[in-house]
Write a structure and sequence with these properties.
The chain is an alpha/beta fold. 46% of the residues lie in helices and 16% in strands.
């Protein structure tokens, strides 16, 4: 880019060929309307469909605005975001899912909060358009995560978030493969805030996370942030083993 990038938007992508044709133009329109330099970093997380080809075509059509990072395997959403952090050049960094359940049109609202002086902007999904079992699991994960981390966040599962550059630099320096990004960012933040954002039903494609995979993912991430879950499971195993004799 010929000018300093002010805003970086990171989008992890895994088998999203059905959503990308709708996401890309909406994202460009939203960011063009903000009247500040930006870059979009798509991180292809080992997609097996046509996602990578579509992203490369999108890059060719917008070489000054779009960059593509390609993984040679599926390493998970948080690893994809960490790679995006590492490649980002913006003073403000926004993360966004590719499924369009969180509208990209919400991005200006997050950036406005950063401009007000907040260093981390979390979001709370309003009127969630997810199945009941997923919403119940999300509430459970939020409660457990708050208990384990000692933090107070309302929605760990919403990846639409904004960070100031210094927060991203600290996260990058953590060098953890299981970095729990929302919790770490909240821990390092001096002036964090949460705002409500819209949430829509997925119209294109299907979710890549089953309920069991989501629970396992959060357990893995939390054990990277705290030893408590691992210690708790170990103690339960010891007690069960002792009672079996």
């Amino acid at each position: 880019m010929s000018e300093t990038c002010v805003l970086s938007v990171i989008v992890p992508v895994y088998n999203e060929e059905e959503s990308l044709p709708y996401l890309c133009p909406r994202l460009l329109k939203t960011l063009d309307g903000m009247n500040r330099p930006y870059e979009i970093i798509f991180v292809n997380d080992g997609s097996r469909d046509a996602s990578l080809k579509m992203l490369l075509d999108f890059h060719k059509a917008n070489p000054g605005k779009v960059r593509v990072v390609d993984f040679n395997g599926n390493f998970g959403q948080h690893m994809a975001i960490m790679a995006g952090f590492d490649h980002s050049r913006g003073d403000v960094i926004v993360t966004l899912d590719a499924d369009l359940q969180n509208p990209p049109e919400e991005i200006p609202n997050l950036v406005a909060k950063i401009d007000e002086g907040h260093d981390v902007v979390g979001t709370i999904r309003q009127n969630r358009q997810d199945p009941k079992f997923r919403k119940m699991a999300s509430r459970m994960v939020n409660a457990i995560t708050n208990k384990i981390t000692g933090l107070r966040l309302n929605d760990y599962g919403c990846m639409l978030r904004a960070y100031r550059r210094d927060i991203v630099n600290i996260i990058n320096q953590s060098c953890e493969s299981t970095t729990f990004i929302p919790a770490l960012a909240q821990k390092f933040a001096v002036n964090p805030v949460e705002i409500p954002v819209g949430h829509t039903e997925r119209e294109h494609g299907t979710s890549k996370y089953s309920i069991f995979r989501l629970i396992r993912l959060n357990f893995d991430l939390m054990t990277g942030f705290s030893l408590f879950p691992l210690q708790a499971v170990t103690m339960i195993g010891i007690v069960v083993s002792a009672l079996s004799f």
